[in-house]
């Protein structure tokens, strides 16, 4: 998993807000959408690989996937969270 030291310095590349680990229920909702073929990234492309975890920006608008313990901090690969927030 991502170390606390690394979490302290990570920022959203789009908003420059701090990032925090996404809670398990949010990751589960996004993974369900991925499995159903409903999840898209900011480019509008289908997200095909399920997440091991995620990083969310401070205002909870974007989720950056974590795959094999490596966060993907590419703005175009981020998932907009509007449809997944409960």
List descriptors.
five-stranded antiparallel beta sheet; alpha+beta; 21% strand; single chain; 86 residues
Question: Can you tell me about this structure?
Answer:
The protein has one domain. It has two helices and five strands, in the order αβαββββ. Helices cover 21% and strands 21% of the residues. With 86 residues, the protein is an alpha+beta fold. It is globular, with a radius of gyration of 12 Å. The mean pLDDT is 94. Strands 1, 2, 3, 4 and 5 form a five-stranded antiparallel beta sheet that branches. A hairpin with a 2-residue loop joins strand 3 and strand 4.
Largest sheet: 5 strands, antiparallel
Distance N to C terminus: 25 Å
SSE pattern, N- to C-terminal: HEHEEEE
Total domain count: 1
**C-alpha geometry:** globular
Q: How many helical stretches?
A: 2
Strand share of the residues?
A: 15-25%
The percentage helix is: 10-25%
Give unreliable regions as ranges.
Answer: none
Mean pLDDT: 94
Structural category: alpha+beta
Per-chain topology:
Elements (H helix, E strand, L loop, with lengths): L3 H6 L9 E3 L2 H12 L17 E5 L4 E6 L2 E2 L7 E2 L6
Antiparallel strand pairs: 1-2, 2-3, 3-4, 3-5
Could you write a compact summary of the structure shown?
This protein has 86 residues and is α+β, with helices and mostly antiparallel strands. The protein has one domain (4-84). The chain is built from 2 helices and 5 strands.
């Amino acid at each position: 998993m991502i170390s606390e030291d690394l979490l302290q310095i990570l920022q959203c590349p789009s908003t420059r807000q701090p990032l925090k680990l996404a809670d398990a229920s949010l990751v589960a909702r996004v993974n369900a959408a991925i499995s159903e073929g409903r999840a898209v990234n900011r480019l509008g492309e289908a997200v095909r690989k399920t997440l091991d975890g995620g990083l969310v920006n401070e205002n909870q608008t974007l989720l950056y996937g974590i795959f094999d313990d490596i966060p993907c901090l590419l703005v175009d690969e981020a998932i907009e969270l509007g449809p997944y927030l409960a």
